[in-house]
Amino acid sequence: MSDLLARDSSMPLYQQLENILYARIERGEWAPNQRIPSENELNRMFGLSRMTVRGVLNKLAADGLLIRVPGKGTYVAPSKISTVSPAYKGVREQLESMGYATATSLISLELTSPSPAVREHLGLDESAEVFAIVRLRSVGDEPISLHRSYVPAALAPGLDDRDVVDEQLCVILEDAYGLPMRRVDEQLEAIAAEPRDAQVLGVKRGVPLLKLTDVISDADGRRFEYSTIVFRGDKMRLQFDYRL
Questions:
Q1: Is the alpha carbon torsion for 160, 166, 169, 172 positive or negative?
Q2: Ramachandran angles phi, psi of 34, nearest 5°
Q3: For each of the chain's 244 residues, which pLDDT tens digit applies?
Q4: Looking only at Cα atoms, what is the longest distance across the chain?
Q5: Is the pTM of this model over 0.85?
Q6: Contact at 8 Å (CB) between 186 and 213?
Q7: How far is it, in rounded angstroms, from Cα 151 to Cα 157?
Q8: Residues 6+ positions from 18 with CB-CB distance below 8 Å
Q9: Cβ distance 215 to 179 under 8 Å?
């Protein structure tokens, strides 16, 4: 693709400029976190009005390709890792299949009385206890997701003696306790980072995060796991592929 504007083309000049800037990012000419030319510089390079250039930069920023920092300039947005829902394939398994070096750390694993929300999601009575597991997943040295899982203690006795760091929880539940995943009720929402999660994930309070909530059942309809995964919105992208 040419980096020159075709002024006799039927394609609007702003669209041509958007395509040119997009191509430069895609082919790596402008790397993630790199500052790109200013509005004035782009104006001189392409002979367009500053308003036109500004509109194109704002559009690419809205599309997640650029980040505009007042008083500093415009930067190429950090690249994001695309994964599918963990209901289809574990996050760690996906990352490692893409060549990423991952690390999982156990923050806590305890036998406890569930909160009313956890009890409702799992259909438990007030006397029931759950294993509450909190794990942090990192790529390289950067935290990317915080996983909280709740499993009814009656369905998985001794779960606190299992290795939930090096083994996937879904594999442990199926192989050791006969709890295969057959149905997943899933919700995805954007949230603002609370102080507790922000500290663990290494982000500022209030930054956008993605929160994925799963209620997992076996073939008999027993709900045996309720989980929430909070992903860093600047590092992760969830991909959904529907075939009808």
A1: negative
A2: -85, 140
A3: 457 888 888 999 999 999 999 999 888 899 888 999 999 999 999 999 999 999 999 999 888 788 898 889 999 987 777 676 776 667 777 777 777 788 899 999 999 999 999 999 999 999 999 999 999 999 888 899 999 999 999 999 999 999 999 898 999 999 999 999 999 999 989 999 999 999 999 999 998 899 999 999 999 999 999 999 999 888 877 777 656 5
A4: 75
A5: no
A6: yes
A7: 10
A8: 56, 59, 60
A9: no
| SS3 per residue for the chain | CCCCCCCCCCCCHHHHHHHHHHHHHHCCCCCCCCECCCHHHHHHHHCCCHHHHHHHHHHHHHCCCEEEECCCEEEECCCCEEEECCCCCCHHHHHHHCCCCEEEEEEEEEEECCCHHHHHHHCCCCCCCEEEEEEEEEECCEEEEEEEEEEECCCCCCHHHCCCCCCCHHHHHHHHHCCCCCEEEEEEEEEECCHHHHHHHCCCCCCEEEEEEEEEECCCCCEEEEEEEEEECCCEEEECCCCC
Kindly report the backbone phi and psi dihedral angles of residue 131, in degrees, each rounded to the nearest multiple of 5, phi listed first. Answer: -90, 120
Q: Which residue, among 243, 185, 182, 242, has the nearest Cα to 213 in the 3D structure? A: 185
CA–CA separation, 34 and 168 (whole Å)? 37
Taken in order 27, 28, 33, 38, is the CA torsion positive or negative? negative
Residue 59 neighbours by CB distance under 10 Å? 17
Determine the length of the chain.
Answer: 244
Exposure pattern of 80-109 as b/e (b: 16+ CB <10 Å)? bbebebbbeeebbebbeeeeeebebeeeeb
Are 21 and 56 in contact by the 8 Å Cβ rule? The answer is yes
